[in-house]
Every structure is written in structure tokens, then in C-alpha cells.
Amino acid sequence: MRKPMVAGNWKMHKTVGESRILVTELVQGMKNFGQVDRVLCPPFTDLWAVRAIIEETDIGLGAQNMYWEESGAFTGEISPVMLSEVCKYVILGHSERRQYFGESDFTVNKKIKAALNHNLTPIICIGESLEENKTGKTAAVVNKQVRVGLDGLNPDDGAKLIIAYEPIWAIGTGFAATPENANEIHRDVVRASLDELFGEETAQSIRILYGGSVKPDNAGEFFTQTDIDGALVGGASLKADSFLAIIKATIG
Questions:
Q1: CA distance 149 to 124
Q2: Which positions are annotated as active-site residues?
Q3: Residue 230's domain spans which residues?
Q4: What is the pLDDT of residues 208-236, one digit of tens each?
Q5: Is the model's pTM score more than 0.70?
Q6: How many domains does the chain have?
Q7: Contact, 247 vs 30, CB < 8 A?
Q8: Residue 59's domain is classified under what CATH number?
Q9: What is the secondary structure of 194-238 as a DSSP string?
């Protein structure tokens, strides 16, 4: 059985002071949900402040991005060495990074390898655009993202990954894929691609999260599906009551 996970991607929201207020609320509410892995992914500037509040809990901490080099003249970048001192997880390949900052499957691949080399658990984002979805290219696009993004990894590496399927057209739009359709992509495209790369045993062990306008009122429908193992939550993770409601929905 794959343990459910709900991760909150705060994106470019919350000052240090605001993050302390939110996390203090969340810690109290999360105490009774140990059967779900809960992960907070605040901006870089908030990582140490959040860590200080959750370090005596089983709540995970993740960053939203990183560069693949350990150090060097890369102004503005954060290395895996730096992150490994403060957090366990790192989101890689988010569609906003691809769209606004020119990331590709090839650069995501380099980041994944660097993260694994420094004992960071990558949460790897994949997903198609609205045009690709409407023209029937979803399977081809997602398969390519998986195969190129994970190129060169072995089954032991694969077992350490978390995948997040986030159809780009559903992120922040209020429109979500239907639970049945999302599950079909998870099972027949993502997990099938992982099977080809790593074998069935490893593929079945990898958690695949859904992301894209996940809210308290629709989360439960997604979590009843066989191959949806949790959620990567954006806007709804910025308020304690909505994020806690989504976590609660994973256990029915």
C-alpha cells in the first residue's frame, strides 16, 4: 500500500511572519493525521522559520526548486547542498518553472539526479497544456516528460521519487480534471511509463499525486481513485482550514 501524501506548494506567497502564523495553525490541526504524509513547501526565505516550528513534528518540509550544481557563480540559485541542511523534499519541473523560466525535461533530469545525490526526495511535476489536451496529445506529452525527465535512473533511484501529475490547464483556474480521467492518466500513462523504466514492482511503489485546483469540496473524489495517492495543493494550501480539510479527505 502506498501511503497518501498531501503537499502544499505556497508558490510566491507568505512573508516569514505570515508563514509562522500559518504553520502554527497547521501544526495544531495536523496532529491527528499521522497516517498521511504532510509536506509544506514555502518560499526559500521561509524555510528556516517553518522548520523551527515543525522540527519536533512528523511534518515534512520541501523547497520549490533548486539548481543542479553544488556551488559556483550562479547568482540567485540555490544548490542541493544548501537545501539538504534544511529540508527533505524539493519540487522539480513545475509547469510555472517550465513556462516562465525556460525549464525543460532535460534540465529537470539534471536536477532530479542532483537531488537524489544529496538525499533529497524530488516531487516531479508533469502535465499537458490545454491545447495538448484538446488535440489528444496528453499521453504522448506525459510519457515523454516521464521518460526524458527520469532518463538514466535505475529502479533504486525510482523508488525514491514522487510524481505529481498537474494538467497545466487546471492549475489555478478553478477547473480540475475529473477524478476518473486523472486516475486514467495516473494508471495508464504515468505508472505504465514508470513500469517500462523501472519494472512493475518499483512502478507500483511510486506515489503519484494529482494537482490542479484541488479543493476541500473535490479532494475526496480524487482520493477514492485507485492510482491517485494524494495531492500537490497550490492556492488551497495557503489557508489552514482548507489545507487541513484536504488532508482529512485522504482518509475519508
A1: 9
A2: 94, 166
A3: 5-249
A4: 999 988 999 999 999 999 999 999 999 99
A5: yes
A6: 1
A7: yes
A8: 3.20.20.70
A9: HHHHH-HHHHHHSEEEE-SS--HHHHHHHHTSTT--EEEESGGGG
